[in-house]
Amino acid sequence: QVQLVESGGGLVQAGDSLRLSCVLSGRTVSTSTMAWFRQAPGKEREFVASTMWGGGSTNYADSVKGRFTISRDNAKNTVYLQMNSLKPEDTAVYYCASTSRYLVGTTRRSARSEYDYWGQGTQVTVSS
User: Fold this and answer.
1) CA-to-CA dists, residue 113 to 6, 19, 30, 82, 116, angstroms
2) For residue 99, what are the β-bridge partners?
C-alpha cells in the first residue's frame, strides 16, 4: 500500500523559510514522479513543483520560481520542498503527490489528475 506523509508546515512570518518533507512508503522515490501541490481556502488545488525519476528534471509554478526548491533523497525515500522568501500568498495546505508514470511535458506534470497517490497535507501559514 502506497502512503505519503508530509511534515514541516507551520506558522512563519513573511520572508522566512520552511522545509517540507514527504516520506513515501510502499514504493521507491527513485522510480516515482513526485510533486507538491497546495490549496488555499476557497481556491482550487494548484501545482507547485515536481521532480521526475531518472534524470531528476524539475518544474515549478511561476509563482514560486526562484524561491522554492524541490529535491529528493532516495536513501531516505523522501522528497523535500525548500521554501524561501515566503509570502502571505503562499499560505495554504501543501500536499505531496506521487505516480509511477514518467510524465512528459509540463502540462502533464502539473495536472492533479496525473497523480495516483496523495498525502494528507501540511498547513503553511505566512503572516505579513
Assistant:
1) 20, 25, 21, 24, 8
2) 33
Residue 116: CB atoms within 10 Å: 13
Query: What is the overall mean pLDDT for the chain?
Result: 95
Q: What is the mean pLDDT of residues 99-127?
A: 95
Angstrom distance (rounded) from CA 28 to CA 43: 31
Q: Which of 24, 32, 38, 17 is nearest to 95 (CA)?
A: 38
Record the cell numbers describing residue 93, joined without a space: 495546505
Reading the block at residue 7, the C-alpha cell is 511534515
pLDDT bucket at 10, cuts 50 / 70 / 90: very high
SS (H, E, C) the chain: CCEEEEECCEEEECCCCEEEEEEEECCCHHHCEEEEEEECCCCCCEEEEEECCCCCCEEECCCCCCCEEEEEEHHHCEEEEEECCCCHHHCEEEEEEEECCCCCCHHHHCCHHHCCEECCCEEEEEEC
